[in-house]
Amino acid sequence: MGERGIGNCIGVVGLGLMGSSIIVSFLRAGYRVIALTPLLEELEIGTIRIREQLDLCAKMGLLPEKVDFFFDRYEVTADYGLLQQCGLVVECVIEIETIKKQVYELVEDHVFENTVIATNTSAIPISNLQKYLKYPQRFMGIHWAEPAYATRFLEITCGAATSVIIAEMIRDEAENWGKEPTLLYKDIRGFITNRLMYAVYREGFALINKGCISMAGLDKCFQHDMGAWVTLMGIFRRMDFMGLQDYLKTYHHLFPKLSNRQDVPQQMEEILEKGGRGIHNLTGLYPHTEDSVRKLEQDFSNFNEEIYHLSDRYRKKLNDLNL
Amino acid sequence: MGERGIGNCIGVVGLGLMGSSIIVSFLRAGYRVIALTPLLEELEIGTIRIREQLDLCAKMGLLPEKVDFFFDRYEVTADYGLLQQCGLVVECVIEIETIKKQVYELVEDHVFENTVIATNTSAIPISNLQKYLKYPQRFMGIHWAEPAYATRFLEITCGAATSVIIAEMIRDEAENWGKEPTLLYKDIRGFITNRLMYAVYREGFALINKGCISMAGLDKCFQHDMGAWVTLMGIFRRMDFMGLQDYLKTYHHLFPKLSNRQDVPQQMEEILEKGGRGIHNLTGLYPHTEDSVRKLEQDFSNFNEEIYHLSDRYRKKLNDLNL
């Protein structure tokens, strides 16, 4: 390994939407990338996807060089042998355990013993996948948000057999990826943000189903209350900001009232039973039309760009406060 | 009442920070305001506070007219008789039930039977306070976020005896206040966002106390994951956006694992026992210094202004989608 701990070359296996946007985030950060697809039919479409995402990234003003500069800094290939030069290999293939197992075997056959291997899974526990590794201590989860090149979020998750030292090295390295990496020392289901969000869903559905508020009303509340501060300070720093003294009383009277239900909310079950895929097949919790979906997607793309730049202006200052 | 349902004049009782920023939000929206303080010593400081907040509001570009224009559109007084001209009176006094009771009695002695009376309480159930009213059907909670003139959040809460028709009229009226009002049909403890946030705190503390992640790490996750979309779409529209299909499986395996604890997290209890008031006495969940607090407050003031304008550019489009 070079000075950077993982050297200057990173391998990414799997060139779906997520894989290609992860590749672009590494290119943006100055790495060379071996873009490997085990699917021959993905070689061509993968190349196109990376170009498209590079263009999007450039359009947002996030590339330190012109797009052309990056064209010879990645190689799209089906040859696992090229991974040998990589200090880190990130697996982004389909969420099927047997396929991931095959990928790890092939990767381990071709890389050095100290090459770090990571999975982008959000569905399978890291400790389960880790069992397929010959050298499991160098294996961990690295979980991006979409689009990977224009989001700060990054969860690095240790499996039961992961070396914490190696995971901390990757976390420190990830600071150079334009990320705000966080390290999960234990491989908990759902990682962090999913756990927190499901706690919100549970309480949210309970309030809706008690007739306290409509779904659109609840969304509005959260958008305009939490939305006004969470990007700046998270939830616990917000408590300090508000002064703490009212929380204890509220804890005492509110905690016993929160929903502890374990069953799936009925309206979710019904929508999913009829094959609901939200905006993707116009069947979801809200009514959607092709037109409204197009607008929402465009809005999100624009909003994401704006909030990314907005949070960037504050995060450096806030990181100083974290010391 | 005039065409607007509550006429053009609103009374606000209590000129603390919150009261004065609520007054400014009404002035901004074009109402005349009777700013009433039951505390003689607050008459002068209340006037100064309103001026200061008008200036801040103007600085953000939120006033439709020059500051001077508003100077004769409000009257600071200790005379409850002036409330007679108000179609709505909002109580913002200290969170002590006996004091609020006195205020309601005085207000009801001076206003018409159909004048709407609201409380800004976040601590006392609306149904409890409602008992002190002669005409309880016209009483409800209206809950702002600070600073009231530069936030969209507004929860309108029915008590057990509130007329839903009157509450809906106030909700519709509040659309003209530059707000995104939501109506809670039932008077639940903590209202909506507090309930949702305490569900997050419960799970968050559980994860921290299990050694999964640090507090700063958890905040970072939430800031950069949720922060990247919540202002745009809330939580349930986000589910539709992501496509729903993965949620059912996650529900099944995650719900049984979420924390159901009812006790106050130990670190909260410890800090509060030693009188911790977060940034206000430099004793909180995070370390703070006078310098870091000054920076955080300045950052929040700037951030709030930016996110307010940012969300404004999207909310109109999104409201169209809500139809």
Automatic annotation (TrEMBL), chains A, B:
User: Pfam families per the record?
Assistant: 3HCDH, 3HCDH_N
Please list the residue ranges annotated as the 3-hydroxyacyl-CoA dehydrogenase NAD binding domain.
Answer: 10-187
Q: Which UniProt keywords apply?
A: Membrane, Oxidoreductase, Transmembrane, Transmembrane helix
Respond yes or no to whether keyword Ribonucleoprotein is given for this record: no
Q: Where are the transmembrane segments?
A: 12-31
Q: The 3-hydroxyacyl-CoA dehydrogenase C-terminal domain covers which part of the protein?
A: 190-276
- Please give the InterPro entries that the UniProt record associates with this protein: 3-OHacyl-CoA_DH (IPR022694), 3-OHacyl-CoA_DH_CS (IPR006180), 3-OHacyl-CoA_DH_NAD-bd (IPR006176), 3HC_DH_C (IPR006108), 6-PGluconate_DH-like_C_sf (IPR008927), 6PGD_dom2 (IPR013328), NAD(P)-bd_dom_sf (IPR036291)
* PROSITE patterns, per the entry: 3HCDH
The record, for SUPFAM superfamilies, names: 6-phosphogluconate dehydrogenase C-terminal domain-like, NAD(P)-binding Rossmann-fold domains
Q: Which family does the record claim for this protein?
A: Belongs to the 3-hydroxyacyl-CoA dehydrogenase family.
Protein name as annotated: 3-hydroxyacyl-CoA dehydrogenase family protein
What is the species listed in this Swiss-Prot or TrEMBL entry? Sphingobacterium faecale
